[in-house]
Amino acid sequence: MFTNRLASRSVDGEDGRLNQYKRVVLSGRRDVLYYARTVIGYHGCDLDTAEQILSGSPFTPSTNDYDWLGRGVYFWEFGPDRAWRFAQAQARRGRIKTPAIIGAQISLGRCFDLLDTQHTRNLQSYYPLWLQFMNLANLPIPENRGALPDRKGRYLDCAIINGYLDIMKSDGAFHDTVRGCFREGSPAWPDAGIYVESHIQVAVRNTDNIIGVFRPTHTQPPGE
After folding, report:
1. Helices 117-136 and 16-27 meet at what angle, rounded to 10?
2. Which residues 6+ apart lie within 8 Å of 66 measured at CB?
């Protein structure tokens, strides 16, 4: 995989095109921002998995190549209802047996926050460099897939985020978390600018930033 190639080679490696590519990306690097605050996140999963984590087992980071924010343990920020509905959907797809949610206190720490224009502009500047390298290396360009407007298979976005953060990490700039806001679902009413599944997600790359976990008082929406 492209991101693994970047992570496994040093800037002084044998591939001249890769070296030049990484140097150009790093030339625009800015210091990693540290967010000295915590958020509450909710993780949708199978009931057995929830009980294991609540008993002290570690989270397993997601490494799907379509994840919206790249690699990490995913949480819905202050979104227990959205986490529960995600778990329900996973059960309907046959991916889990019994839906459940876990709450967690998360330190954002060194956060690649896509609600900050510094980070979105960094990704915007990175994209043409990444695309040029992919074409020169004759590597396939991933595409976001799925029905409009959501395109839930975010293969392109995942590759861009993972690739950029891998290069930053190779230069000593490690990120604990990635945070993003997404408009999702249908309009709440005709001509609405509010969408019924909009949310903030946090992908935790450094699980040491998960301060603690808890069992939510209400494990599903009222009436369900």
Report:
1. 170
2. 145, 152, 153, 154, 155, 158
